[in-house]
Design a protein that fits this description.
With 106 residues, the protein is an all-alpha fold. It contains one helix and no strands.
Amino acid sequence: MKLSQIATIVPLVIVAIGLIGWILTVRNDVTSTVDQINDIRAETEIRDEQISDLSVRIGELEKNLAIADDQMRTIMGEHEVIGEMFDQLGEIQPAGERREYGGYGK
């Protein structure tokens, strides 16, 4: 082999080795990135399930709060009627009764 052929082939071999190394590095980086993306997707799905569960629980709490509020309004309305009955009868309110009846929601 002539020196000129060796001078041509050696740089090509060095470039080929560098190119193979670069391709393997890029492939490894892409594989790692894909694995990380899959992990993020799995975490996102878990978070979506948790958010869905919390939404259902919040809906139940809102419903229970609305029921409690309705019951409170009913009780306060009954207290107002009882207070009016005491006033009409000229009766003194029962012992221990210190609240004023009525005026709820005003």
